[in-house]
Task: inverse folding
């Protein structure tokens, strides 16, 4: 009986935390947008009324955050980090965001498998006790190990949130960029996020828009031509200001707005995943097409 009560208390705590986070970030989204051109964009989206729109966004955000927290313990399973032994095709490398782990990609991995992209890897990095560059180098080492293990397979990089910033930075590494057939970032704070001021750990400090790391990242460009796509949303309440999710000029990324979708909701939205899959498949087709 004690175990049941403990589980119920744990679930209730997750629900409380998820709701609190959703309320806070959407309040900050409105605060950051008030009196700016983005306020008008939000009002256009809120056809049914602003309060109803924001309450709906908070509810969806809380539900997605709850599911993410509930499934995070699964990220410790070694099987989540590597593909099935006989999986074919290009190597799809999913890079998770801040405070997350490979478990956040459960649905995207399923959708990519269904699309004929089953060879999947999920690098890990630690969010609390290291800065951005050591985290990026750790992911780069894992990507290079994947490249060595699969010398004849193209690499697909898919990054959510901070994972998208890491993916974009990896393209500045010449040996990696030459092997990448496509790169997709989802809800990435390409120009930083002021919400980082509320986070904890060393890595989040580098996410602030005025940090030395974030300012330096604006100058990085791919070391080789790579088809690259940035998916973002006008209601992403974890990248503030919202326009900071736009990739820097000269980065080589296509900048595409998704259907109305929150930051964590990206991970559970089949339409957004479909946009990424279509881009990857198109890039692979272009790579294999004979030149004229």
Result:
């Amino acid at each position: 009986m004690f175990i049941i009560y403990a589980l119920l208390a744990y679930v209730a705590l997750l629900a409380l935390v998820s709701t609190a986070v959703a309320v806070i970030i959407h309040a900050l989204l409105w605060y950051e947008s008030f009196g700016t051109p983005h306020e008008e964009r939000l009002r256009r989206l809120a056809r049914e009324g602003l309060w109803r729109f924001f309450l709906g966004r908070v509810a969806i955000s809380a539900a997605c955050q709850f599911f993410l927290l509930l499934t995070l313990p699964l990220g410790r399973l070694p099987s989540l980090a590597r593909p099935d032994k006989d999986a074919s095709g290009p190597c799809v490398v999913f890079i998770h965001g801040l405070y997350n782990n490979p478990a956040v990609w459960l649905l995207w991995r399923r959708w990519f498998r269904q699309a004929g992209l089953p060879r999947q890897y999920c690098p890990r990095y630690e969010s609390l006790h290291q800065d951005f560059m050591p985290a990026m180098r750790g992911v780069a080492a894992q990507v290079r190990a994947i490249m060595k293990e699969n010398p004849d397979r193209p690499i697909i990089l898919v990054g959510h949130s901070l994972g998208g910033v890491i993916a974009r930075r990896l393209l500045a590494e010449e040996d990696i960029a030459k092997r990448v057939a496509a790169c997709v970032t989802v809800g990435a704070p390409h120009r930083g996020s002021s919400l980082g001021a509320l986070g904890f750990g060393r890595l989040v400090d580098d996410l602030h828009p005025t940090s030395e790391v974030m300012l330096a990242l604006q100058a990085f460009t791919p070391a080789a031509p790579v088809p690259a796509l940035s998916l973002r949303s006008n209601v992403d309440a974890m990248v503030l200001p919202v326009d900071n999710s736009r990739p820097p000029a000269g980065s080589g990324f296509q900048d595409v707005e998704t259907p109305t979708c929150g930051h964590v909701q990206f991970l559970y939205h089949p339409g957004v995943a479909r946009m990424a899959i279509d881009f990857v498949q198109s890039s692979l087709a272009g790579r294999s097409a004979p030149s004229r």
